[in-house]
Design a protein that fits this description.
2 copies of one chain form a homodimer.
Chain A lengths: L7 H20 L3 E7 L5 H12 L5 E7 L4 H9 L3 E5 L8 H5 L12 E5 L16 E7 L6 H4 L1 H6 L2 E5 L11 H11 L5 E3 L8 H19 L2
Parallel strand pairs in A: 1-4, 1-5, 2-3, 2-4, 5-6, 6-7
């Protein structure tokens, strides 16, 4: 028999600030996604490719979450999109308060889409609502197909899954069908986008999904 | 500036047991939904109507969560579906451990769908993963259309929304469009089922969605 403490107040604390963040984003018609993966799965590469292709059509901003360094932020700024760095100084995930405290630096009135790139970690980030519309998980081919089974909270909570580095599939024993099946078993409607940020293969389907989400969020804001 | 404590370990505790529950359900090909609403919105009425119509095609069981009493369980048993009562003795929501501790009483090998009816509460239940496939929220017309705006976590986390008691719409100023719009703003893909458990209007669309989910969960289990 399990016996663990459950702290509704602490959950409620993060959720309360996440709700404030979400209210702010909605007020300004900004679509927000929280980008999560293991270290090195390609979150920033996906961001670079996405921003390059869509930045002339939509106004983006990025919040970069890292334990330390601003290397990823520099890559985003180089594409010509504004960004803000959050360094967690040891914490393995962002929370709603860390995000809330930098929102004053963003011009939400002139934004269509805010991307929050979380700390590279397949566990804890999935458990903290930041106020985003959607959580987007990235799994790379080189990590292996067993990850949905081993890190189920991430794949259960995601609203979309990008499978990155498919250009490396011929050089690995990655079983795409199995990864997709196990992820969708945890999350019956989960849209999956296999792609390669290096070759560009598969990017179009991901971009089409993202554009649809931005449009939908904006439609609600216009009411 | 906000400053609240965030306890990743406590979140992780509930999520860990939820993950165990989910693994068990998947192993047995059981589709599980967590039914949540304010007190009196009609969770048990929806269950009665759903079970009456589908119990000859699928093998159901119900876990009834209540602070005290087994009134709802008696209603379920009367329909001819097996059920188990959890009394939380004061706690305003179920958690994954309470659910885990009664799973031994269920014959998961001979089950298609397990419904977990949560404690009547529009706040805390939404924050605790029990291991379900989907959270289903019920909002009744008589509660008012402002609820998605006022209780956003529930509507953000739900995978389906039932709007119950639409037979009473002519007698209230309930604005269905507004309720749906505000809920979908929080949850861009949210399927919404306006219905009346009293007249049966709208039930078919809800039942069709539920059958699809049961079939999908079973398909994954067959691999």
């Amino acid at each position: 028999m399990h016996d663990i403490p459950i702290g509704a107040d602490i959950l409620a604390g993060n959720n309360q600030v996440a709700t404030e963040n979400r209210g702010l984003f909605h007020e300004h018609g900004v679509y927000v996604f929280n980008l999560m993966s293991s270290p090195g799965a390609g979150k920033t590469s996906l961001l670079e490719q996405t921003l390059k292709r869509l930045k002339d059509r939509y106004r983006f901003a990025v919040i970069e979450g890292d334990i330390q360094s601003d290397d990823d932020l520099q890559r985003v700024l180089k594409v010509g999109v504004p960004g803000i760095q959050i360094n967690t100084h040891g914490a393995c995930h962002l929370n709603s308060v860390l995000v809330h405290n930098v929102l004053g630096k963003l011009d939400l009135d002139h934004l269509d889409c805010l991307v929050i790139e979380n700390v590279g970690n397949l566990v804890c980030p999935a458990e903290f609502d930041l106020g985003e519309d959607d959580k987007v998980a990235v799994l790379s081919v080189t990590e292996g197909a067993d990850k949905p089974r081993k890190y189920p909270v991430m794949f259960h909570n995601a609203r979309a899954l990008v499978v990155n580095k498919i250009d490396l599939m011929p050089h690995t024993d990655f079983d795409l069908d199995r990864a997709v099946r196990d992820a969708q078993r945890l999350n019956l409607d989960l849209p999956v986008f296999p792609l390669s940020c290096r070759t560009g293969e598969g990017l179009d389907a991901w971009l089409a999904w993202l554009e649809q989400r931005i449009a939908r969020a904006r439609r609600f804001a216009n009411h």
